[in-house]
Amino acid sequence: MAGAAPAADAPFAPRPQEIRRELLLASPRAGVAVLAASYSARPAGGELISLHQFMSRSDTVDVAFLRTSPDHGRTWSAPVAVPTLEVRAGGKFRRALRGAVADPRTGRLVRFQIEGLLPTDDPLEGMRQWYVTYQVSADAGHTWLVNEQIIQRGAEFSPTHPLPGVWIGKNCVMVGDVASVPLVLADGTLLLPVIISPRGPDGTYFNPGGGYTYTDAAVLRGRWRDERQVRAGSGPADLRIDWELSDVVKGDPARSTRGLDEPTVAPLADGRLLMVLRGSNGGKPELPGRRWAAWSGDGGRTWTPPDPWTYADGGDFFSPSACSQLVPHSSGRLFWIGNIVPVNPTGNQPRTPLVIGEVDGKSGRLRRETVRVIDERKAGDSPLLALSNFSAREDRETGEIVVNLSRLFERSPPDPNRDWTADAWLYRVPVK
After folding, report:
1. How many Cβ atoms are within 10 Å of 237's Cβ, its own excluded?
2. Is-contact 235 229, C-beta < 8 A?
3. Where are the domains of the chain?
4. Distance CA 410, CA 421 (A)
5. How many CB atoms lie within 10 A of CB 23?
6. What is the tens place of the pLDDT at every residue in 215-235?
7. In this structure, are residues 273 and 265 in contact, taking their beta carbons and an 8 Å threshold?
């Protein structure tokens, strides 16, 4: 069915009236977008941490802020700025904050960042420079006791060679977006979805698909270094984590011109892990724009070869090159949020509507009949409107799925001079 229209190309059900939208943070000035995310600071309860970042160009964070809430987000502390740019010898050092997860066994909060020194401050230099760091807090993010680069244990690994196949300066490892949410498995293993830029015959970053960028996907598996003390409930705490890289999930550049990007991972009812990935037909619009999927039966160590992600009834659907997120719910259901479009996209466009649907617990495929619109382009919105920079979580108090979404380029003229002005919105999606 490659290249064919979706099995059902009728419009999705409209956004239900009970989905509520509220302004979270207004843009501080013209030309600046606010992108927001929030996550639980403890394994239970209503403490949250909010991250919001200002952007005025693609793939670059101008400044980031953190806030805390004791009451499920009803009230927030004053924002605290997190430096994202330092001028250093050899270029500009950039930092971008990503997601976090609270470990249910230890209560510790682990968050992640990507960092890199860009010689001329070109975002594409990150494909050779980005690496991942992690931070650990024992008090819900009020203080941070560990802040170090993720480096796999072993004598061969170092800051410049942190993981198998990764050599900073030649290629990179990074967390693609805040929607690549970390998680903790039932056995206590931490999982972080990451992407890796491949190396070519000369040992440096290689783009075999000819798109804007090219990456493969993987997960980092982490275990607490004081695992025995955690199990026994005693002994001195070592808050560091030992990391290992999974097998790499590689795309086919003849089918996805940018490889596989921005993985999102969640467990299925049978214990397998599902990874849903961003693909692209950028530069080759004759290719069908798809989501891709891989499965793991061993806790994320190894993965099946990727194939197009479909509806549970076997039908294909089109999806642009954009992030997506799997959202587990306390009811035991698993939801997916992303863009599905009625006609074949061209690279990143269009990135509307943004939809939510339920994942079939057995097949790991999307249940067509559950797909509903969260938001879509309306009269007066620019044709370039992008409903794609988002993150989601469950509200522990109400059971709603809370979606942080910025309506990028909604006021842009239909030319390359895009207006980055965008507010951060909060959508509340009831789960019935």
Report:
1. 15
2. yes
3. 20-429
4. 8
5. 9
6. 999 999 999 998 876 666 656
7. yes
Query: Is 0.85 surpassed by the pTM of this model?
Result: yes
Place of tokens 């931070």: 135
Q: Residue 317 and residue 8: Cα distance in Å, rounded?
A: 8
Task: Give the Cα separation of 72 and 234 in Å (integer).
Answer: 32
Assign residue 348 a region: left if phi > 0, alpha if psi is -120 to 50, beta otherwise? Answer: alpha
Q: What is the DSSP secondary structure assignment for residue 285, as one 8-state letter? A: T
Contact 299, 275 (CB under 8 A): no
180 — phi, psi (to 5°)? Answer: -85, 75
Quick one: tokens of 285?
Answer: 């619009």
Burial of 58 (0-12, 13-18, 19+ CB in 10 A): exposed
User: Which is it for strands 291-296 and 80-82: parallel, antiparallel or unpaired?
Assistant: unpaired
* Residues 168, 172, 175, 176, CA torsion sign: positive
pLDDT tens digit string along 122-165? 999 999 999 999 999 999 999 999 999 999 999 999 999 999 99
| Alpha carbon distance 213, 115 (integer Å) | 18
**Fold designation for 20-429:** Neuraminidase (2.120.10)
Calculate the CA dihedral of residues 393, 396, 400, 404 and round it to 10 degrees: -30
Which structure tokens are listed for 14? Answer: 């409209």
SS3 of 231-260: HHCCCCCCCCEEEEECCCECCCCCCCCCEC
